[in-house]
Amino acid sequence: MEQIFTYGQLYSFANKIFLSIGCSETDADTATKVLLSADMRGIDSHGIARLSGYVRLWEAKRVNAKPQIKIIHQTPSTAVVDGDSGLGLVVAPFAMQIAIEKAKQVGTGWVSVQNSNHFGIAGYHAMMALQHDMIGMAMTNASALVAPTFSKERLLGTNPICVTIPAGEEPAFIADLATTTAANGKLEILQRKNSAAPVGWIQDKEGNSTTDAHALKNGGALLPLGGDRDHGSHKGYALGAIVDIFSAVLSGANYGPWVPPFPAYVPMPENQPGKGIGHFFGAMRIDAFRSADEFKSNMDNWIRRFRSAKTVEGEDKVIIPGDPEREMETIRMQNGIPLLPAVVEDLLKLSDKFSIPFS
Amino acid sequence: MEQIFTYGQLYSFANKIFLSIGCSETDADTATKVLLSADMRGIDSHGIARLSGYVRLWEAKRVNAKPQIKIIHQTPSTAVVDGDSGLGLVVAPFAMQIAIEKAKQVGTGWVSVQNSNHFGIAGYHAMMALQHDMIGMAMTNASALVAPTFSKERLLGTNPICVTIPAGEEPAFIADLATTTAANGKLEILQRKNSAAPVGWIQDKEGNSTTDAHALKNGGALLPLGGDRDHGSHKGYALGAIVDIFSAVLSGANYGPWVPPFPAYVPMPENQPGKGIGHFFGAMRIDAFRSADEFKSNMDNWIRRFRSAKTVEGEDKVIIPGDPEREMETIRMQNGIPLLPAVVEDLLKLSDKFSIPFS
Q1: Which tens digit of pLDDT belongs to each residue from B284-338?
Q2: Does B272 touch chain A (CB under 8 A)?
Q3: DSSP tag of B194
C-alpha cells in the first residue's frame, strides 16, 4: 500500500538530510527542491526515492557536500563549469544560471559541466529559463545501460534531453525525454510485476531482442529510441551520443562506458578519461530572435492547433509535451505524494541513521 | 537499369539549369554543390532527383532566383535571416556562415531563418562548421507528412536534425536524422517494389498501424521516431516539434500544417501564419569550451571505443554516425553516381526545356 505525504513533510525531511551530510543551507534547499520537483511531476524514479542513493555516494566519498563550484573557461556565450564533485542537484542549477546570465548579455548562453554527479530531472534546470522568456535546454550523461545499434555492450546512459519553450496564455512546451525507447523506471515497474516488456525495449547479454524485463540485470541492455535498426535505433543511438559528447567530451567529464555509476556499491570504471559526470545547458533569449509577444502568440497558436488535432479512435486529445507532468503536479499539490512501501522503508532507515524524524 | 554519371557531368548540368532560371554565378555554384552533396553521400532522395522540383517551384513563382537575403534581427550570438523566398540551397549556407562568424566572435552563433525553401540535406550546412573546429547544427521544418502521437492528422514534416562534431585523426561524427522512424525516401523504395513496410513506419488515414507502403498516398501519415506510444513515439513527436518551433516560430516562418509543400502542384495551405519554410543553424567553437586538441583526442578515443565495441552476431562493427555516408562518398567519387531511369528521364525533360545538353 502506498502512503501519502505532503510536499512539506518530504521537503522538511530531505532538507534536514542534506544539511546533515554537510550541505550549506542554500545548497540543501536547492537540492531538496530539485529532488522533489521529480516527485511532484510524477517522475518518481528520480525523486525522493533516490535520496538514500545520494547519501550513499556521499558516504563513499564520491559526492562532496561542500563543493567549490567554479567556471574554469569562458567566452561571452559559453562556459565550462567544474562541479568539484558536488551533488548534481546543486551543480546543475548553478551552471544553468550562468547560461541564463550569458543569454541576457549576448542572446544565448551554453554551459558544459565536468566533475558533477546525477542532477535529478533535466526538466527542473531547463525550466529555469522560462521565467526569463528564454528557451531552456538541459542534458546529462549517465552510467552506461544502453547498447548502441549492432552492439551487445552497454556504452551509453539513458542520456536525457530537455527543451523548454515559453508560450503566452498556454502553458510552456516542456519536452523531457530519455534517448531510449523506454526509461529505466518503466522497466522497473514491469520487473516488480514480473510482466513482459514490449519488444524493442531491451536486449539480452548476447544482444538478442527479448521481452524478459529482468534481462537488464543479467547483462542485457536498454535499447536506443527506435528499438532496432529497422525502426531507427541508429537515430536514438546518435542522439544519446550527442548528449554524451556535449556533456562530457566538451567539458572534460567521463563519457561512454567510463561514466561513474549511481549505485555507490558499483566500482568506478577503470582508466577514466575525465572527471565525474557531465551535463550541458543552454538558454536562448526569445527576443534575441523576435519580439517575445509575437513569439508567444505564435506558440499559443502552435499549441492550440496540435492539441485540437483529430485523434485516432480511443484517444481524447493530442498531448503537448509537458501536459502529463503539469497535470500530475496539480494533482499532487492537492492530494499529496504517494510513496511505495520500499521507498518509505528506505527513508525510515535514513531517519534512524541521522536521527531525523520522518512521518 | 541505372545509368552512371560523373560528379562533373551532373555539376555542369545542374549549374547551367540554376543559371538558366536566373541565379547568379555564385548562387548557382552553391545550389549545385549542396544538391550534389546529397547524391555523393547516398541520400539520393535529396539530390539531383529534386532538380526539376526546384525548377517547378520557380515556375510557380514560389522560388525567387535572385533573392536579397538579409539579417532582420540580431544580437552578438543570434540572428534571424529573411531568405526572400530564395532557394533553401542558397539561403541555408548564407545563414550557416553567419552562425560561424558569430561563433568566431562570442563562442557560439545561432541563426533562425524565415521565408526560405527546401535546403537539400541538413548535413551540408552543419558540416561547414567542421573546418573551423566548430560543432555544427542544422535543422529545418518541411511540409506536413507526420502525425503526432494519438493523432490521425499530418501536422509535422520529417523535420531533420544534423549535428556535426570534429575529431582529430578519426573522421568527424556526423549525425543527420529525420525525426521519423523511417525517411520518406525509404518508403518510396518499398512503394516501387510493392513491398510491405515494417510495422511502426506508417499509419492509415484513420490512424491505424499499417504495413501498406501506399498508405501515405491515401491519407495516411509517417510516424514519429519510436513508431507508437509504447515505443516512445511521443519522443520522436517532441523532437520534430522542437525542430518546427526553432526553425519557424522563432523566425516567423510557417509551422505545423502551414509549411509550404515541395511539389509545386500542391496548393499552398490557407491562413499561413508566417513566411515560407524555416530553418535553424548553430555553430559552437570547440575552444570556447576547452582546447581543441584535447577535445579532438578525446573524440578520437570516444569514436575508437564505440567502433570497436563487441557486436551482436551477424554484424561486423558498430557504426559511428557519418560512416555510411562517408564510405558512399568515397565509392561514388571513384565510380560515379548511379541514377534511376525515372530521374534520368526527368533530367532529359529539363535538358529539352532549357536547351542544355545532358549526357
Answers
A1: 999 999 999 999 999 999 999 999 999 999 999 999 999 999 999 999 999 999 9
A2: no
A3: T
Q: Closest Cα of chain A to B191: distance in Å?
A: 16
Query: Cα–Cα distance between A272 and A287 in angstroms, integer?
Result: 42
What length is written for chain B? 359
Taking each continuous run of H as one helix and of E as one strand, the counts in chain A are 10, 12
Q: Residue B148: pLDDT band by 50, 70, 90 thresholds?
A: very high
- A284 at B interface, C-beta within 8 A: yes
User: What is the rounded CA–CA span in Å between residue B327 and residue A61?
Assistant: 47
Residue of A nearest to B311 (CA): A151
Distinct helix (H) and strand (E) counts, chain B: 10, 12
Rg from Cα positions in chain B = 20
> Bridge partners of B137?
B163, B282
Q: Which residues of chain A have pLDDT under 50?
A: none
Distance CA A110, CA A112 (A): 7
| 8 Å CB contact between A88 and A140 | yes
Residue ranges in chain B assigned as alpha helix (H): 7-20, 25-40, 51-59, 88-106, 122-127, 184-193, 233-244, 292-307, 323-335, 341-354
Q: What is the model's pLDDT at position A10? A: 98
Residue B329 falls inside a structural domain: no
Q: Looking at the predicted structure, is the pLDDT value of residue B159 above 90?
A: yes
The per-residue pLDDT of chain B, averaged, comes to 97
Of B77, B148, B284, the CB nearest to A306: B148
Neighbouring CB atoms inside 10 A of B84's CB total: 17
Each residue's pLDDT tens digit, B175-217: 999 999 988 888 888 888 889 999 999 999 999 999 999 999 9
Residues B251 and B235 in one domain: yes
For chain B, the domain total comes to: 3
Of the candidates A78, A208, A251, which has its C-beta nearest B108's C-beta? A78
Reply yes or no on whether the pLDDT at B1 is more than 90. Answer: no
Instruction: Evaluate whether residue B314 is within a structural domain.
Output: yes
pLDDT digits (tens, 9 = 90+) for A144-178: 999 999 999 999 999 999 999 999 999 999 999 99
How confident is the model at residue A359, as a pLDDT?
78
Record: contact B155-A299, CB cut-off 8 A: no
Q: pLDDT tier at B236 (50, 70, 90 boundaries)?
A: very high
Residues 6+ apart with CB under 8 A from A323: A171
Q: A74: how many CB neighbours lie within 10 A of its CB?
A: 17
Apex A318 CA angle, A313 and A319, nearest 5: 135
- Check residue B246 and report its DSSP letter: I
The whole-angstrom separation of Cα A298 and Cα B89 is: 27
Range of the domain at B194: 185-222
Q: How far apart are CA B162 and CA B144, in angstroms?
A: 19
DSSP string, B17-44: HHHHTT--HHHHHHHHHHHHHHHHTT-G
User: In this predicted model, what pLDDT tens digit does every residue of B107-143 receive, in sequence order?
Assistant: 999 999 999 999 999 999 999 999 999 999 999 999 9
Calculate how close chain B gets to A253, using CA atoms only, in Å.
10
A82 and A148 inside one domain: yes
CA-to-CA distance for B298 and B318, rounded, in angstroms?
Answer: 18
B313:A198 CB<8 A: no
The domain boundary residue, chosen from A222, A250, A274: A222
User: Is B298's CB within 8 Å of A255's CB?
Assistant: yes
Buried b (16+ CB within 10 A) or exposed e, A90-128: bbbbbbbbbbbebbeebbbbbbbbbbbbbbbbbbbbbbb
Do B285 and B142 lie in a common domain? Answer: yes
